[in-house]
Amino acid sequence: MFRADGNARIGLGHLTRCRVLAELLATQGHTCLLATREPLGPNWFGLGREAGRSLGHHDWVRVLPIPADVALADEPAWLGQQLTAYDLLVLDGYDFDLAYQLRWGQLGRGLVLFDDFARAYSPADVVLNAAGGLTAAHYAGRTAPGAQLALGPAYALLRPEFWQAQRRATKPPNTDRVFLNLGGADPHNHTLPLMRELAARFPTRHLSVVTGAAYAHRPALEAAARALPQVRLHHDLSARALAELLRRCGLYVCPPSGMASECAAVGGLLLVFLTAGNQQLVYNYLTQNQLALPYSALADLPVAELPALAAAMRARQRQVFSPDGIAARYGRVFEDLGRTYQLDVRRATAADATLYFSWANDPSVRATATRPEPIAWADHLAWFERRLADPHCYLLLFGLRGQLLGQVRVEFREEMGTISYSLDAAWRGQGLGTAVLRRALAELRRARPGRWTLDGLVRTSNAASARIFERLGFDAAGTETHGEADFTRFRQEVPAVPTFA
After folding, report:
1. In this structure, are 237 and 348 located in the same domain?
2. Domains of the chain: total
């Protein structure tokens, strides 16, 4: 389920991004829905023209209008009623604050968040931010334990038409043709003054001005364009037509948004113009890495050098913006998260003592334990009863399709916890270790919103288990010896969930 809105006030960037991801996931067998408050009508994104279908259903998504009487604070509960316990929610928009995300999380459902700022805490299971130059350090202390970060242009979501245009763009960029677009809505109508500036700067060059479906200033723009013979206006282009127009142009002016990525994918002299605060990270990355120039630099660029500048910039852009591997990367992200939330989870009870005993005495489990000798039934039962009675001990059982497959145990002493896990022999080797531990961390985060630290001991020879802990954000914190075996201690510091009004 995608949750996003688009209109003349906020633009169409959130919806466009969701559409591209939904199309990609649909090709991999996922069923996608869009929950939105303001459906834009049957030609939304040109789908009416391209697919011949109304807004209510497309190949890639079914649209679910949110009733007007459902308040924003009540949306998570309402969305939960529309979905099964195993479905995932993807949020893209700035109204979905921490309180909203936590309300969804209390339902025990998976959450993916599109983030453009890298500055606020999120309890999401996956954080997506395609801005360049980001690393995990930018999100330190701002994510839930075990959260997966999908960062950088390797996750840039571009419609396939633009990758196709990249392959067809074999001639040098044609800087005699200038492209201008300020987003799908451009609520402040930056398009009009920039069109006039570009027409004055390039009086003999062809200027293509593109406005989006939610652009509300067409009469004023059309009136001004009538006095500018080199200007041609385009409105609400299909992706195919827009990509072809970019291929024929060689100098682009647009915001540092998804549009900038589409221009850079085709390749040419890109000048970026800030229109919203959420564009700052992309703006910084593009300009600092010479993948674009600030629009303000245009006045000082020698006209004779524009072709060479465009060719050099395209070469740099091609090294960053490539379709290779994007589908596989997103496929892994959603496959991993889907596996995590396909699991059923419950607290252990006294009736599970025998099951725990059989798992604890599994030879492969004993071989990786700090105390490898077999466990006697009486000792196990006494230990198990103590753990069940301890309010700071979490014995979590995981199942799939009605069969129990493994367990995670976490024991806290004040803010310090130790974590261990094991899988039934029949379920090993299927990539479930990561899913089980990630789900356990999500359950712990909901149960313990305060600050805590989690340690896990992994036998040094157990490389597979070490990779799981590393994948989930644990850092190696030293080695130690127990008996005759060496172990690596993995540790994760988990910040408290911020409070909100």
Report:
1. no
2. 3
